[in-house]
Amino acid sequence: MRRPAFYSRSPRGPQDAALAVAPEAAQTVAPAPAAGWQPGRRSFGLLLALVVGMGATGAYLWPRQGTQALTQKDIDAAVLRTLQTATLPSPAARAADIIRPSVVRVVGYGTEKTTPEAKTEKRGRNLAKVKPPEATDEVPGKQVERGVGTGVVIVDKGVILTNLHVVAGAETIKVTFADGLEAPATITALQPENDLAVLQAQKLPDDLIPATMRSTADLMPGDQVVAVGFPFGIGPSVSAGVVSGLNRSFRSPEGKQELSNLIQFDAAANPGNSGGPLINMNGEVLGIVTAILNPTQQRTFIGIGFAVPIENAASAAGSPPF
Predict the structure, then answer these.
(1) Is residue 75 part of a domain?
(2) For the chain, which has fewer Cβ within 10 Å, the N-terminal or C-terminal residue?
(3) 3-state secondary structure of 249
């Protein structure tokens, strides 16, 4: 079946107008010559038709009153007016929108832990679910949430980076993708010295978008960063801040492990942010959020968070990006 011709809807140009007017004028003013017509009269008729056609074209091309050519000043004023009246997304909002399809919720299931840290996280999750702080979901023979954290997809085949302490000791691991798909996951690699684990999801969304990783070689204190994750299971949540320092060290509250070469940042992070991405304003992953510093046992944010640089994190997956 032949497709009908598509005609442009754009206004005609001056040449098109002239071609449209001149034939009609020629048809009206210069009828077919009768027998015995003299050459002089024929020439006069053609001349008259030409004059009428030129007059129509000139009228079309004549500058219309009330129109004014735009100047650079007019364009600048229009742009300024738009900037003043339109609400533009913040750099942090744009960065979070870029990384959001690559962020997953990570939940480890198993027998409920009774450590102080586990109890603190459980209270936070209960409050987020509008439950009494000490409520328990423990049922004989049923697995419960042992820990909730965050992960970031770095390969579109379902390879996910997270923290080791998020999934350590879990009997079952489940990840929830940005589109709501929940899938079981298995641990494929560990890097205990950097508190990192690599997961492989068993089911994938149709269009899984991996994160873009960015070297921290040129990262400087004061650079803007965004942390995206699931603090106490709520999320995805976004917080913004700056890089506070580089090459920091952190010792766990129990004193069992010391991490080094960390990025210090002040974007809010709480239990549940662990394993999530720390990104720049282009939505590129600079590191994996790993720990927060708090002199008390409350495990709440006081302004000092730490992230493992992406160079170390990606090497845990066997693919150093730089």
Answers:
(1) no
(2) N
(3) strand
Whether 280 is covered by a domain: the verdict is yes
**Dihedral of CA 151/189/301/239: which sign?**
negative
Other beta carbons within 10 angstroms of residue 231's beta carbon come to: 26
Tell me, rounded to whole angstroms, the distance of Cα 315 from its chain centroid: 24
Residue numbers annotated as active site:
165, 195, 274
What's the domain range around 238? Answer: 224-316
pTM score, whole prediction: 0.69
| 56's tokens | 């129509």
Which stretches of 67-194 are DSSP H helices? Answer: 72-85, 91-99, 116-128, 164-167
Task: Answer for the pair 241, 265: CB distance below 8 angstroms, yes or no.
Answer: yes
Where residue 126 sits, what CATH number does that domain have? 2.40.10.10
pLDDT digits (tens, 9 = 90+) for 67-86: 678 898 888 988 888 878 87
* Lowest-confidence region among 43-57, 88-102, 183-197: 43-57
Q: 228: which residues sit within 8 A by CB, 6+ positions away?
A: 96, 99, 100, 103, 150, 235, 236, 237, 238, 276, 277, 279
Cis peptide before 271 (omega within 30 of 0): no
pLDDT tens-digit profile of 212-256? 999 999 999 999 999 999 998 898 999 999 999 999 999 876 556
Q: Does residue 67 sit within a domain?
A: no
245 shares a domain with 194:
no
130 and 197 both lie in a single domain: yes
Number of domains present in the structure of the chain: 2
Looking at this protein, which amino acid is placed at residue 133? P
